[in-house]
Amino acid sequence: MYLTERNKSNELIYLEALAKRATLTAQEEKTLKRLRRGHEGEKLYDTIFDEVGHENLNIFRDIWLKADKSLTQIDTLIITDDILFINEIKNYSGHYKYEGNMWKIGKLQISDDPLIQAKRSVSKLVKLFIENKINITTDYNVICPDPYFILTTQDDLCRTKVIKRDVMKQYFRGLNQHQSWDRSARITEIIKNKIVSEPAYEATIDPERLTLGRQCSKCCSFSLKSHRYFTLCTDCSHKDSNKNHIHSAIKDFHILFPGEKIKIRAVRNFLNNEISDSTIKRYMGEFCLLNNKGRYATYTLRPNHTR
């Protein structure tokens, strides 16, 4: 069973919010495409695992661990009584080669070796369990769920450790043969106590890049026809309430300017003065926690509204 959610990374959330209100640079576009594809691969991995079933397994997804005085990110960690499995998920597509400890697609060498990434995570976990006086076997695999991924290699270790789409269900059925009882419960608790929040994605944005105002929640157009309590998109005819516009603006502001305090005036400016302070204030309590009252009141976005 899944013990944690599969979430988008903070960098992906930032770039998606930025793309709604600004023209991305070529590098930002490239990064956004890569991160979206990676997240799609993780969701596909989960879908296939769900089809096989995992009721008797303890599974952590998309976690950050404080181990060996540093942070380690793990795509999927599967805990059983006898073995700890780490799955590094790569949504590669196309013809890849692995030779001389290098990954290549065509003539281009991949900078990050997923096998090394997975082994590094294993090393961190081993040290963590040594600290807790637990002796447990660890294993790792690189999972490639895209059906159009092709791998050519003469390396036996790579052949063993890389799990392609056509054998994923067989691999998952093998995991289900392992038991998860009392020992795995203790290990699970240790992992839970070491989980930390993903580090904030730090970026400085020029406010001049942004298009301000109310935005269609369906097609992201700013071409809206305003009515008293709602807008109609002139591009796709979608209807949005002012409440939804305020909620979206608060979230986008929080994502794009994480160091800025959320104030009614800041939200109004972000909406290009298209909604009054009194209307914004009416809904702030629903989406935010009030930090201090008065003329200079500031707010914090409620945890269940941050993503």
Your description of this structure?
- The protein is an alpha+beta fold.
- It folds into two domains: 10-196, 3-Layer(aba) Sandwich (Trna Endonuclease, Chain: A, domain 1), CATH 3.40.1350; 211-305, Arc Repressor Mutant, subunit A (Orthogonal Bundle).
- It has nine helices and 15 strands.
- The chain has helices spanning 10-21, 26-52, 114-131, 156-161, 168-175, 182-194, 242-256, 264-270, 277-287; strands at residues 58-67, 70-79, 83-89, 94-99, 102-105, 108-109, 137-144, 149-153, 162-164, 195-196, 224-226, 230-233, 239-241, 288-292, 298-301.
- The strands form four sheets. A six-stranded mixed sheet has the order 9-7-3-2-1-10. The protein has a four-stranded mixed sheet with strand order 6-5-4-8. It has a three-stranded antiparallel sheet with strand order 11-12-13.
- Strand 4 and strand 5 (102-105) form a beta hairpin.
- The protein is globular, with a radius of gyration of 23 Å.
- The model has no long low-confidence stretch (mean pLDDT 94).
- Pfam families: NERD.
Name the features:
307 residues; alpha+beta; Trna Endonuclease, Chain: A, domain 1; Arc Repressor Mutant, subunit A; 2 domains; 6-stranded mixed β-sheet; 4-stranded mixed β-sheet; 38% helix
